[in-house]
């Protein structure tokens, strides 16, 4: 058992090292690092209060005073984009946490106990998967009332089946390992087997999957904000900002353009990292 | 095979029923009263009560659900609270626009995706391959709705090359309703001006909605082609002196198709998701916009109707993928 865990840790380290040596995933990591810094330091970096309106100076084009211009209420778009990083990062992290917290137990129970439990739980995941993720999230977000917290809950509820499925298949493989059989033979309790022997093996594939999905989570959240099911004004959420700026295209293009660039950059960061990880895991796909 | 299809259909039916239950109870716990919302704040209390009673909204939710199921079994989807028309009629009207958009998008996605994927596979490691990979990563990272806005900004407002939002220009009359697909109906009516106009209106939304599918298909095509190109029989084909074009298209692509088909199916399903956003940007009168407004106005019957339709399409797309898989690869035997 200890040997296997050590082996697992070595493998994870090697994976991390190989991912870091890939220039593309390094670029992705740099972008994600930038996102985290901007989110943490937004109050220091932002030249203006993101909520302060200045009607006299509304819809001002980008200039040295307002790098990204001002919006329909005279708020500084640059400051709002910086503060938006906090919101996106929080949504992504919380969503990933909640959907794995639901997905792990369902998948592990399903894969370990098999039979009736498995059938029942997998039918439940079928129901959730019989539906496009955004549409399901829309319905849930509307039922719960559109707020930022509910966006997180909605996307997590729509997204957990993927992790449950993955955790299930990994559990089914680990369950057949000799050390699990040994633990059963010496009379270890079921909860001990699940927590000490199964869970550690399930964690890393699921975390890798989550990191691949991060970009998608941010896009879904922005989409919900865009159609009005997410953050509400005056929150500086990127999707909502694009939606508000829509009415000012083509004249005041900067309202929608900059928040969209911010989303694209952040998602690109996660996609680059994800691509790097996939390269390491599946060398057949490698470019070189 | 027959048993497999039957089992899959049964599972799909169970899943769709589950979706029905979830959506019904979700949409009925929404705070707020749709009747009051429709009648306005000045409506007298007894009128509101009367309507609530007539629509069965005053009964317990499980009872309402059974009532709904009974009507559904008779083909009655109920009446939309917002449009005051039967939901089925609404769906018939909005659905074709989405089909037209999704089909155009998947055509764009498949054609461009296959071409780009094959090109990068045969020029593996070259600057072209790297460029394609980088551009497609950027494409995947852009929100569909933002891409749509930027496309409108550039190609409609600034360059004026393509028409703006909507299915046809406002001064044109829709062709008589036959299939509901404007391009097809225009052809049937031999109205080529409308046909050209509708086709031009399709270009931007189809490219925007098809962009993610295109990237996905290009990537899987590249990977799948690379795997096949390393096989012995490709060497044999080349050694026989076959022209490279034949080797690539007949020998390699045919065998690389299997994973590609799966991805195409997956993307056709996910187009529904993108359609919600793309239709909003391009003022496209389709299912996505209908669903959005139904959810926003708490229109129970309409929400349920759209839900059933989307779940049906999604399930059948998945089933079709698996069947195509079995059909194309005789090695796969389903029990």
What descriptors fit this protein?
heterodimer; A: 288 residues; mainly alpha; MetI-like fold; 10 helices; elongated; B: 335 residues; 13 helices; 75% helix; 0% strand
Task: Give a brief description.
Chain A has about 290 residues and is mainly alpha-helical. Helices cover about 75% and strands about 0% of the residues of chain A. Chain A is elongated, with a radius of gyration of 22 Å.
Largest sheet: number of strands, sense, barrel closure of chain B: none
The name of the CATH topology of chain A is MetI-like fold
User: SSE order of chain B in H/E notation?
Assistant: HHHHHHHHHHHHH
Tell how many strands the DSSP assignment of chain B holds. 0
> From the helix content, strand content and strand pairing of chain A, which structural class follows?
mainly alpha
**SS-based class of chain B:** mainly alpha
Strand content of chain B: under 5%
Catalogue the unreliable spans of chain B.
Answer: none
In oligomeric terms, what are we looking at?
heterodimer
The CATH architecture name of chain A reads Orthogonal Bundle
Topology, element by element:
The complex is a heterodimer of chains A (288) and B (335).
Chain A lengths: L1 H20 L1 H23 L31 H37 L1 H15 L3 H12 L3 H28 L2 H8 L4 H37 L11 H8 L8 H28 L7
Helix pairs in contact in A: 1-10, 2-3, 2-10, 3-4, 3-6, 3-8, 3-10, 4-6, 5-6, 6-8, 7-8, 8-9, 8-10, 9-10
Chain B lengths: L1 H27 L5 H6 L5 H10 L6 H13 L13 H36 L4 H15 L2 H15 L23 H7 L3 H38 L2 H8 L4 H38 L5 H10 L3 H29 L7
Give a written overview of the molecule.
- The complex is a heterodimer of chains A (288) and B (335).
- Chain A has 288 residues and is mainly alpha-helical.
- Chain A contains ten helices and no strands.
- Chain B has 13 helices and no strands.
- Chain B has helices spanning 2-28, 34-39, 45-54, 61-73, 87-122, 127-141, 144-158, 182-188, 192-229, 232-239, 244-281, 287-296, 300-328.
- Chain B starts with a helix and ends in a 7-residue tail after the last helix.
- The interface between A and B is large, with 46 and 56 residues.
